[in-house]
Amino acid sequence: MAMAGSSSGGIDMDLYSRQIGTFGLETMGKLVQMKVLICGLRGLGAEAAKNLILAGPKAVVLHDDGQVEARDLGANFYLCEADIGKKSRAEACLDQLKQLNPYVSVSAHKGPLTEDLVAGCAVAVLTDTAQAELIRWDNFCRSRSPAIGFIGADCFGLAGRVFVDFGNSFTCRDKDGEEPRSAILAGITQEAPGTVHTHNDRRHGFQNGDWVTFREVQGMTELNGSEPRQIKVTGPYSFTIEDTTGYSPYLREGIVSQVKVPHTMRFFSYERSCVQPRPEGGPELAVPDLSKFGRSEQLHLAIQALLALREARGALPAPRDEAAVGEVLRIARELNEARRKLGDDAMSVEELDGDVVRRVALFARCVISPMAAFLGGVVAQEVVKFTGKYTPLHQLLYYDMFELLPASDPSDWQAMQDSRYADQVAIFGEAFQRAVGDLRLFLVGAGALGCEYLKCFSMLGAGCGRNGKVQVTDMDRIEVSNLNRQFLFRQTDVGKPKSATAAVAARQMNGSLQVQASEVRVGPETEDIFDDEFWESLDIVVNALDNVQARMYVDSRCVWFAKPLLESGTLGTKANSQVILPHLTQSYADSQDPPEESIPLCTLKHFPNAIEHTIEWSREFFEQLFSDGLKEVNAFIEDPPALLAKVKAEGSGSSQLVRLGAIRRALEQRDAPFDLCARFAVMEFLDKFHDSIAQLLHTFPLDHRTGENAAFWSGPKRPPAPIRFSADEDLHLDFVIAAANLYAGALGAPQCRDREKVRGMARQYEQAVGAFKPKEVRIKVDDKDSTQEGCIDDDAAVEALSKQMAELGRRMASAKPVVPVEFEKDDDKNFHIAFIAASANLRARNYKIEEVDFHKVKMIAGKIIPAIATTTAMITGLVSAELLKLVTLKSRKVEDFKNAYVNLALPLFILSEPLPPVQMTSKDMDPIIMGPVRALPEGFTTWDKVVIDIGDVTLKGFTDFLQKEHNLDISIISAGNACLYNSFLPAHKSRLGTKVTQLYEDVAKQKISAKRTHLVLEVSASDADDGVEITMPAIRFEFRAGAGGAGSAGGSGGAGTSAKAASRSAPGGAAGSPSSGGPTSPPAARCRWLCPRRITP
């Protein structure tokens, strides 16, 4: 394992793979050479240090000589009770921080900072530092050549700030970290300015001010190979460039590509920014929360006044020191008046907000985990930006969480002063802290997000009380690539369960944490484990998942059981969070991202124009050769006639020939020497990168024209060129080595990794290859083409080969099976990505597409989600603040909660109020059924449900009940994917006499657990009087009489809205009114509409 930052310059690709997917190798190469100083190790400093060490600089120096206090344990997760009063914070944290990354040299500096120490660092981060010291060290860093990056950050209870100064002239080489975009040209006008039109198969995605270059333009060749030029976007398929009237007329073709052009940024000193925080010519201060315009300016003055008081007193004021609050208010007013007189050279506000100043001063000495995690993620990412990647903060970020404050000051805020929760209690009170401790939480996922959440729970004391509990589940085992961001794991944990390992690590941070770990997937198949009783026992659910399907399922459970859900996700430097509150906000399923663009089949197969197309093709090529194809070999060995019949029934004759030929070849070459595997690889090379391309050009020559007399090879259809195999070409040999070794391993033949030996084998087959002879082949030109692909005589060839295969099957009756390859993206020595990378770049070479490196192929082919520790820590800080709000959900307004979208690369912070749930309303004309639809009740949402408690009746009893009680004619009844009844199918009439539960078991082929008391039914119905289609909430069918009840349908507990409080009877209306009884119902039959805050049905 090559050590990052070692003399060899190697970077551990296994450890840093997801991070490199975000930063890129160039940035990683710069980062591993950086030495960073971090001063102050209360919560914020510890978070920044943790995130930065995971990122992998060369060295991190810690500095904090302050003695550990009990309150420090509420935000610094690497301190323990034994450290209190005995060690400095830097000394106490050192060993734990060292363990995060063996490639980073972590040390602690004792005594005052020295100029020699700071001068030896690339970046200095100062937290919890006095104003005079901030000014001194920022000026020192600016005076160096080159300038040392300086970052100052503070956490003052529920308010915080970050300041960045990278010197007078800092070069940012990539403002956003996004992959450069490319587009295919459709035309360029000769005018001033010239308008460039791109092909309408895809939006160009450029923005105003982007820089682009041109290549392969025919006609207006002046554009080819010239310097980058700025553009002005005029539409999704057009933009303008310079005056093109003097250029040659555009004829055809061409590609325009975005270029990342470095730009210079000027930063101002901290001393100047104290007076005028707005950069010269820059915008107003950043506003992270869209509901708080002007708040950043108020926070700036409040914090400047607070720091002035600190300079005078030598320390920040104690929590809730009213005298200090008055003094800070006085100073803030004086500062504002003084700066108003300076005009444009200073920043002032029209009217000082006394509440903002008060809230900053009251809790200035407090540090809570949510704010520390948020700021720590931001600070560590700003350090990474000193490499030149991404846009640095320019220059101040202010943020507050004042919504967390209780409506009135708690009377018990002075309790627990010698506790790890002292800072939280000072803000929220002891009773609130007890409620936090008694929370019952369900954390789904123990990866990067899950590790951070468990840390947050430990710091906050969530689930640490006598009645509290945290349940965490994750099916996965720990891998090396996890260690770069899943900070609760170590190298010795590789292979262990994530959930159990994370639970143990989190409990070490707070011994009171009541955590239970499992390795069970949360899904329909585990509803016996995560049953009704389990969901109803919860207060809050927190998702830490990485796929939409799992998120959707957990969301559906939370909606059904009316449980608050905290949702979040990350993608590189981007992150988002969503607060989902029963009956108050949208659920996760109410608003989904648009589906990913799929690549048309014909584009993949014959007409690629982007590297993503060739990588996807190569991934399928890998599966065809070494997985699906070899599974068919084993199926043939087991039952030759069945496999032959299956192949002949699927696909075209051409594909059948390929499949049968692959089976025969594998069987005939069992236990063959490696040189035959090398021959196989060379033959595959010739087939895919020469013969098939030559065949395509034979069918569609370069001068081929369409039926509309347009050039066939134009726009997205790039004309390919065959590649002749040469063992002396490195890329050709890469393919042969990978393919031959994969094939040998599957067949049980010995492998050969000696490059020169394989080259020699390949060379002998290269010389034996005959000339290609084209065939008459039918090929689809796009996905709408109904042409049956293949040769005219394919069917006859399939019949002949099938007869040969039948005889081969009889001879191979006792043959050993081959070993299909299961794709594994994270082992760079198994030839999987090596094969795909070589194949993708060879196909790119066929089509003159720019080739890419191994790592990019790995990220795309492995569908690896770029991930970094900084973004993860930042977003979990924001989400954990929302968790604290949920403790007092019943007394809160929905406006108190915040959804977030953050892109640390820009940096961009957008916090907004959650949207209300989507309401179902009646329509005079529904575009799907082409007629009117009536909502029952009007305005219901996905949170609403109907509880029918009439016992385990027959299907007829159920439909009769709905008909009598609600005047509904039922047409379809379903439970999940099982259709229990369809009135349009005559055969379903016989089901009416069957009990609903028995019918469910028969149709779904799933036994109902003894624990289950209800089924979730969806009905399609119409009004019995006028025939209008009815849409209504899902039905909770209680088949165990009396098992239901208002409390069982909703949640109860401190965080949830109980169904008992939310439920109500539904009096009269057009659809009838719920009442007891019914033609087949027992006397206790009931129907309850759980639709709070809705018009009655």
Give a structural overview.
- This protein has 1097 residues and is of the alpha/beta class.
- It is built from 32 helices and 35 strands.
- The strands form six sheets. Strands 27, 28, 29, 30, 31, 32, 33, 34 and 35 form a nine-stranded mixed β-sheet that branches. Strands 19-18-17-20-21-22-25-26 form an eight-stranded mixed β-sheet, sandwiched between helices. The protein has a seven-stranded mixed β-sheet with strand order 3-2-1-4-5-6-16, sandwiched between helices.
- Strand 30 (968-975) and strand 31 (978-982) form a beta hairpin.
- Helix 9 (322-340) crosses helix 10 (354-362).
- 48% of the residues are buried.
- The model is unreliable at 1-9, 1042-1085 and 1093-1097 (pLDDT under 50).
CA-to-CA gap between the ends?
A: 67 Å
Radius of gyration: 34 Å
Mean pLDDT: 91
Number of helices: 32
The total beta strand count reads: 35
What's the shape? globular
What proportion strand?
A: 15-25%
How is the biggest beta sheet arranged? 9 strands, mixed
| Unreliable stretches | 1-9, 1042-1085, 1093-1097
Q: Estimate percent helicity.
A: 25-40%
Oligomer: single chain
Summarize the structure.
The chain has 1097 residues and is an alpha/beta fold.
